[in-house]
Amino acid sequence: MDTLLRYVVEPLLPPARPLNMVRVLRITTTRQCWMQCAFCDFSQYAPLVGHHTASPAISPDHIQQAVSAASYDLIKVRGGLTVWEPWSYFVQLVRHISSQSRAPIQAFSAVELMHFHRVEKIPLRDMLDELRWAGATSLGPGGGELLVDEWRETVAAHRLRSAEWLSIQQLAMESGLQSRAMLLVFHGITPELIQSHLHALQAIRDLSVIEIKPLRTASSPMAYWDPPHLLELLAVVQAIRTQWPHVDIVMNRTLLSEDALTLLHHHGVNHVYITAKEIG
Ligand code: SF4
C-alpha cells in the first residue's frame, strides 16, 4: 500500500511545498585550484606566486557592476585555491559585496577555510567570525560532496576528511552562519553511499539546506563518467525527504528538464537556483 501511495497517488497530488525560484549572482574568484579534485572543472594547477600567469582575482569594480545590474535572492562567492591573495583580501571582498547588496551571501566553504587556516595559521573560529562580520550569511557546502572517506581518498585525495568538514560546519553555525550541506550524485551511486552520507549529516545540528548536485563532468578529469540518471536523483531526493521533512532541498535549474523538475519537485525539491548573472 505504501508503494502504491508513493508511486501512483502521490505524484497526482499537489506538491507539499511550493517551488521557490532563487535568482543567484555567482562570483568566482579564480578558476584554478591546486587541490585537483577529480570531479571539478577548476582542478588544474595554479601557478606559484612569483611565476604565476593566473589572472588576478575579481575586482571591486566588477562586483559593483554585477550587484547593481539586477536584484538577487542569493549571492554565491566561491573559487579555486591559490596562494595569490591572502585571507584578509577575501574578507574585504565579502565586506564590499555586502555593502552593495542586501541579498544573503554564501561565501566560501570549509575547504577554503581549511586552506587559509593551514597557510596563514589563523584559527578557524576567527575566520568564521570575520566572515560573519563581513556580511556572509552562510558558508557554502563545498567539500561536503560525499562524506565517505574511502570515496574522498579516491577522487579528492587532498580534501579535508569528513569529520573535519562536519566540525567546520558546526563551528560556522556557532558563528551565526546558516548550515548548508550537499550531496554530489553520480551515475552508480549506491543506496549504501547515500545512507552513509545522510548518516554523517545527522551530526549537524539545525541543518537547514541540502543542495543536490548532479555530477557534471564536461571539463573535469572525470569526463568519462556518465551523468546520473533521473531515477538516481529521485532516490536521493526521497531519501533526504524521508529523514529531513523540513530541510530545504535545492537543485540547479540549468541541469534539469521541465519534466524532471516537476517530478523532483513532487518528491521534495523545493528550491531551484537560477543563475541570474555570473562573474569571474
Ligand atoms: S577544492 Fe573545490 S575548487 Fe578546488 S579542485 Fe576541489 S572542488 Fe574544485
UniProtKB/TrEMBL annotation:
Keywords, comma-separated and alphabetical: 4Fe-4S, Iron, Iron-sulfur, Metal-binding, S-adenosyl-L-methionine
Superkingdom to which the source organism belongs: Bacteria
Cofactor: [4Fe-4S] cluster
Keyword Aminoacyl-tRNA synthetase: no
Name of the protein: Radical SAM core domain-containing protein
